User: What shape does this take?
Amino acid sequence: MAEEKTKAPAFEAGEAIYDATKLGTPRMVILGLQHMFAMFGATVLVPLITGLDVSTTLLFAGLGTLLFHFITKMKVPAFLGSSFAFLGGYAAITGLADENMTQAQLLPYACFGVACAGLVYLILAAVIRAVVTGPIIIAIGLGLAPTAISSCKSNWLVAIAALVVVILFNIWGIGMMRIIPIIMGVIVSYIVAVLCHDVDFTPIKEAAWIGFPIHWDSTVFGGIDYSNSSLILTAVIAIVPIALATMMEHIGDISAISATVGKNYLADPGLHRTLTGDGLATFMASLFGAPANTTYGENTGVLALTRVYDPRVIRIAAGFAALLSFSPKFAAIIQTIPSATVGGISFVLYGMISAAGLRNLVESHVDFSKSRNLIIAAVILVCSLGLKFQLVDGALFDGLSFSIGSLNITLSALAVGSIAGILLNAILPGKDYIFDESDPHDTGADLSFENVALEKQKAYGEKKAKEKAAVKKLKVKASETK
Assistant: This one.
């Protein structure tokens, strides 16, 4: 009995948890809800911008995540939410609206183009194999940082309340409270927002309790006139090239998850499986009128913060998302969460992503005295951040646009940085890193669990657990002698 008691609260010592069943079902459910809260703000923002349905989006975020987990052998703790990379594609097609066709009627054509882009993943999944991960991970977090600040500006009091609560519970929380800081931050800051009269409950009152999340006229099956081949081809040509950018972002996201968890998911289950899972999830979602799916950096931040790495927790979040998509009332409740609350939570999460990239470079012993490593990191960071925050005609523009004939192509800044890093790492002399090796050298990123820092932490945790068990045994013996 004494040994069982010492094992149960292992998470209190701050150890990484790869098997969340030790926490019990109720706690796993709460952790799943936390991941759902983390992805919700960004996931529902895409349909709000494009005109797609929020409930449909939630349903296929959940189903897409479950499909991804099935294809990746249930190993990768990734959540798939709405992709922002395709916003330009949707805008290009809906921009063709005239007196004959409304934007809503054009959306299924855009979805058809996105579905074709998802299939491109399957074709190229076996081609892309390597990436210089550390700088890309850093760029992901820093690239997201301005959105966190922008959200905080709407109400700094609410944002700071969320930020402070997350920090307090994560550092000084006891037991379960220590690994659900995001939920606590949302609850406390939401209360503060209500007291500040910053929450509008009207959408909740007006929303129905139950509703079917799929609308036939918005799907590829019921919303497209297949005799209009010109419009269909236009959608495919305009949107499919975006797949290249999203694949580069996918590699960066999976690299970030790998670095955070301490396991090389790009090697096992393999990049070909993660890309295939992402592509099929996007294909399925688009067929039914939902946005393209992509792995979410927000949930990577949750992994880094809680150190609970069990993919089952993500699948619980996916199940909740799919189930709650049948309740417009719930979607309305979540949508009333102030943007300042989301900003305060993101303030920590996005920083954690960049910190994971720095940790990745340190633990991989990347030698920056070598010019090739400095050049690769420098080019990745400048491309990923410089192109993201460039001014074009007085407005911020993210990425690089160019034309091939009559086709206009826009790559996101992160995609450009990822491509540049991959090419430079392959071309520059002195490369001593082969991605498929289990023990990569200093120009690559060692994403395996076998590194000194994590081994020391693991050994320390085991030592403390044995000490506690020994002390409890002595107490039991002492009580028995009495």
